[in-house]
Amino acid sequence: MTDEQFAFIQAMNEYKTVNRRPFPTWTEVLDVMKALGYRKVAEPRNID
Known about the structure:
Layout: H1 3-19, H2 26-35
């Protein structure tokens, strides 16, 4: 597991605990990602 993956998992676990949401929506996941600093900067590509 990379440091980036571990940081994301920790952030999601903290979000779920603080907000008492065992199953966050995809919108909430995106909010956590943005809180970590992720922004769309590249053109979309296929997921392989």
